[in-house]
Write a structure and sequence with these properties.
binds calcium ion; alpha+beta; 9 helices; four-stranded mixed sheet; 364 residues; paralog of FGE (formylglycine-generating enzyme)
Length: 364
């Protein structure tokens, strides 16, 4: 039995989260009939011009052994073949982290300053995509893992379409989040604990240490050499074709939402990975789709005291971990490169998922 067959067998009925009629409505609108992949807005010359001088991304999907020595490590083809996890090597470098005007978005952006120099000392292997439902299913099946939301019986936080509020939904778990997902959608309803458990499993499976990105590594990869509000510019419009954010398709389902993009990106909820344009590092969905757990504990004042080289976040001084990037629920500005969110490590949400990174070394 394949992982996909096993998952379909084990997966609870989608109707457990919402009434049948509502579920069918959401399913029809939530990407079960998938729209075409958005065409690239970059040509290669434009992408080159956007690169920082001290970073050198690899931005296509060609396997490394068919391309050049600066790409996916030859030692890790198994995870690409078995799990479909594709890695891109991002070279070390320096960038400006945070936002220059910390009050630009009121209290929501005060924790994003002061803007400061950060050095990423070592090359990274970064997953091009967020971890998918199919990949998480393989983990669950092979490791016998039960998520925090399932263990507690409390489920996860999700959007109540009728009210527009985010509420706890006991029957919402990663395999049944309350909207349509295929194996290629990013997994949601996973806690920080669940995400790090996946990383430990992937480490044991490959012999290569995988983990969540630090907050600094995440922003370095999101900016992809850009010092603008978003990887492609300063205007919300620059996320068109780049990000799955809260948009008119979501607003059509949830009329009480007042702050969404003024365009329709075709995905009211999650979109399959790779549905939108990659950044100049060749990484997808850093803006939007799902918020991504980072390794660090969250501290609103951390940027005022963080070290320049490879900041790892504060010692455990609070009960929150960092979440970055915004999601299908957030308006475009909430998906900005410097945007910082937080979450309790045992808590899960229909808006949060994760991606994995590994340190690059000569043995790769
Ligand atoms: Ca959307």
């Amino acid at each position: 039995m394949t992982a996909k067959e096993l998952r379909n067998k084990l997966r609870p009925s989608a109707s457990c989260c919402v009434p049948i009629a509502v579920w069918l409505t959401l399913s029809n609108l939530a990407g079960c009939d998938l729209p075409p992949v958005v065409e690239s807005v970059f040509d290669s010359d434009t992408a080159e011009a956007k690169m920082a001088v001290d970073v050198r991304p690899v931005a296509d999907g060609t396997p490394a052994d068919e391309r050049n020595p600066v790409g996916e490590p030859r030692a890790l083809p198994a995870i690409r073949q078995e799990l479909g996890i594709s890695l891109v090597r991002i070279e070390s470098g320096r960038f400006q982290m945070g936002i220059a005007d910390g009050s630009r978005f009121g209290r929501f952006s005060q924790c994003e300053g002061p803007q400061h120099t950060v050095v990423i000392s070592n090359d990274l292997l970064v997953a091009r995509h967020e971890v998918t439902v199919g990949q998480f299913q393989t983990f669950v099946s092979q490791a016998g893992y039960v998520t925090d939301a399932e263990q507690s019986g409390k489920g996860c936080n999700g959007l109540d379409v009728a009210s527009g509020n985010v509420v706890r939904k006991p029957d919402c778990v990663w395999s049944s989040p309350g909207f349509c997902q295929t194996d290629d959608h990013p997994v949601v309803c996973v806690s920080w604990n669940d995400a790090t458990a996946f990383c430990r499993w992937l480490t044991s499976k490959t012999g290569q240490t995988f983990r969540l990105p630090t907050e600094a590594e995440w922003e370095y990869c999101c900016r992809a050499g850009s010092d603008r509000m978003f990887a492609n510019g300063d205007d919300a419009d620059s996320l068109r074709g780049i990000a799955n954010c809260g948009d008119l398709s979501l607003k059509a389902l949830c009329r009480s939402l007042t702050s969404t993009a003024d365009w329709n990106d075709s995905y009211p909820f999650t979109a399959p990975i790779g549905s939108f344009q990659a950044n100049t590092f060749g990484i997808y969905d850093m803006h939007g789709n799902v918020g991504e757990w980072c390794l660090d504990w969250f501290d609103a004042d951390y940027f005022a005291k963080s070290p320049e080289a490879d900041p790892q976040g504060p010692e455990q001084a609070d009960t929150w971990h960092v979440v970055r990037g915004g999601s299908w629920y957030n308006n475009p500005f909430s998906c900005r490169s410097s945007g910082r969110h937080d979450g309790i490590p045992t808590e899960a949400s229909t808006t949060n998922g994760f991606r994995v990174v590994a340190q690059f070394s000569d043995k790769n």
